[in-house]
Automatic annotation (TrEMBL):
Top-level taxon in the UniProt lineage: Bacteria
Start and end residues of each Beta-ketoacyl-[acyl-carrier-protein] synthase III C-terminal domain: 247-333
Protein name per its UniProtKB record: 3-oxoacyl-[acyl-carrier-protein] synthase III C-terminal domain-containing protein
Keywords: Acyltransferase, Transferase
Amino acid sequence: MKPVSLIDVASYQPPNRVGREYFERYSRPDDPLLRNPMFRPPEYRHYASREQTGADLIEQAAAAFTDRHGAEALREVDVLLTYNALPDVPFLGSGAEIARRLGCRPRSVVDVHNGHCVVFPYMLDLARKLLQEDGANTALLCVSQNAGKIFTQPGVRTSAHASVPGDGAAVALVAASDESPVLATEVHHYFEYAPDVNITLEDGRLYWEPGTSEMDVGFDNTKAQNVIERGTKILPEVVRALCGRIGAGLDDIDLLVTNQPNRLLLRNWVRELAIDASRQFDTFDSYGNLFGAGVPVSLDHALRADRVAPGSLVVLAGFAGAGEMAAGAAIRWREKA
């Protein structure tokens, strides 16, 4: 199999930084989710403006990447993978628009929507396979969490779960090389949990029908407990499977970077894997739950904080939605440094 490496990642957070007091101002004492540990708020989160699209956020992340590597690094990509938590245009993904803005002409464009919170490790799995094709040498992975505006609607922001998400984006360049090899990827599906992810509207209309009720994510305490129990189990399963694929032990992991759903799951994963908390990198209190952007944004900040030494074994992992998918990737960072 042709070696494939994660070359670098860059991220962007919108400038609008909002503290937890914003939601405390609107919280309801009778909210049944108020004391649920899954929805304890981060200290801060950043929000995109009403007008900012997912493509806008990705373009800003790409600008941060080209500041480091030059514009030509992105113009010659062969494969473009994109994800927007809140699609900019119904029916269409953002791949073509992102390619236009970045001035690249990839031979393959794939909009990946089912990955949700674990989309970045899933993209690495897809890129690794797509780059085995003759003539395919580079892939650009673009992830945007731009759904924060849903949770600041006047009716939605009164619920505890609204305080957790934030907005942000990241791009990563993957190439056929052995510079920072992706040693293995792992994707698990649990289709039986798919019905547990849904949106709600108080007037009973479908989300595309005209009306004034606010779209929200459907949560209750039973569903939240199910998500905690599943997430606590399935992410460590993926990490163990990855380590088994590469012949490594959990003690060999130098840095674990996961999606950032809440403090409870971040703590549970360290406990379940029996790794020291110092080997887990999280950004939850700075940026909240960034959904699919959580893994690449956190990885970018870990790299900028010099938390990843050359030769480190970095494991990226996460789970999506109500537990219908889990994925991970093991990377030997800068093996050739």
